[in-house]
Amino acid sequence: MKTYVICSGGLDSVSLAHKVAAEHELAGLISFDYGQRHSKELDFARACAERLGVPFHLIDMRGIGAHLTGSALTDDVEVPDGHYAEETMKTTVVPNRNAIMLTVAFGLAAAQKADAVATAVHGGDHFIYPDCRPEFTESFEAMQRHALDGYADIRLYTPFVHAPKSAIVTEGAKHGTPFAETWSCYKGGEKQCGRCGTCVERREAFHLAGVDDPTEYADPDYWAEAVKKGAR
Asked: Is the pTM of this model over 0.85?
């Protein structure tokens, strides 16, 4: 299955890239610059493509991202600390982000005669991000069958869509993913902060998977407090 992976440079998508490279034919990685404050993640995506020896496609969506206002990822809004279960984390939603990225990726995959587009949406995303839920991915794939009817038949490959993030850590370790060469933090600082939702989720996933976390966090212990608070 000739597959393009949408890769942000984060733990999930880099693990997915290594999984696809091991189990299918990895055609290339597709990344998006939508004006995210943590754009340094794109350097990690590019490094992943180089490591796996595949083309890297960086799509400039900054013009579109500038209109998707109100998110802590793209606007002058503070990135909240804490667990994804907290109400404040809704400020990290970028409306229709995945839908837009997938549409572009399917077009590229069709033009390159590929068989599939893979994305690393997972079970932990469902609570806060509607365009990461199974209902969305299934509907999107059905829509693309109509959009590309008679031209291409592209599958949407989402192996983690029903899995927790800890399962991605397990799968990534199985395929030799260099976890230290991934970037998750939404704040884009010198180190991953250890306090934002994605840092907390990342640190918790390693703990649950029983895999050593090689990540250097500015605050490596905050996650346990945030998880406990989010579970209340």
From this structure: yes
